[in-house]
């Protein structure tokens, strides 16, 4: 049995931070996966903190995610158009990033804006119940 050894985190990070590195298709999708997860988390926290709600927030995130991914891949990393299909570039790991966005958006919005409005149930203790009679 031969063990396949993948690239280390440091090598992916070096490719991701080097302008014009033109990674292979496999490396590109690995880098974009983590890039999109971080982007979804940051956008969700910002949207929740600023109090954005509604369908325009979701549409704005999807448009921003695709735009930033396009700029990052084609302009910053220097990926050639004929190596990667644009449809694949836009849809690869988009839904996972969207779920990260939604969860972080809900948690941050709820923690900041709905914390005071959520009623906390008060369960009377046995001494309080006896004194009320």
From TrEMBL:
For this UniProt record, give its keywords in alphabetical order, as a comma-separated list.
Endoplasmic reticulum, Membrane, Transmembrane, Transmembrane helix
For this protein, the parts annotated as crossing the membrane are 31-52, 58-77
Name the InterPro entries for this protein. Answer: EMC6-like, RCAF1
Location relative to the cell: Endoplasmic reticulum membrane
Report the protein name in the record.
Rab5-interacting protein (Rab5ip)
Q: Which family does it belong to?
A: Belongs to the EMC6 family.
Its chief place of residence is endoplasmic reticulum
Give the Pfam families listed for this entry.
EMC6
* CC per GO annotation: endoplasmic reticulum membrane; mitochondrion
Q: How does this protein sit in the membrane?
A: Multi-pass membrane protein
Gene Ontology BP annotations: mitochondrial respirasome assembly
Q: Which PANTHER family match?
A: GEL COMPLEX SUBUNIT OPTI, PROTEIN C20ORF24 RAB5-INTERACTING PROTEIN
């Amino acid at each position: 049995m031969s063990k396949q050894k993948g690239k280390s985190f440091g090598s992916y990070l070096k490719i991701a931070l080097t302008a014009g590195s033109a990674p292979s298709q496999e490396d590109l999708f690995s880098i974009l996966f983590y890039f999109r997860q971080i982007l979804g988390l940051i956008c969700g926290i910002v949207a929740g903190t600023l109090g954005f709600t509604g369908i325009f927030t979701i549409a704005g995130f999807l448009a921003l995610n695709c735009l930033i991914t396009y700029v990052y891949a084609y302009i910053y990393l220097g990926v050639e158009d004929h190596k990667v299909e644009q449809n694949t570039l836009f849809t690869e790991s988009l839904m996972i990033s969207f779920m990260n966005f939604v969860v972080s958006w809900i948690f941050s919005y709820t923690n900041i804006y709905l914390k005071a409005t959520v009623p906390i149930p008060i369960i009377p203790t046995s001494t309080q119940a006896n004194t009320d009679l």
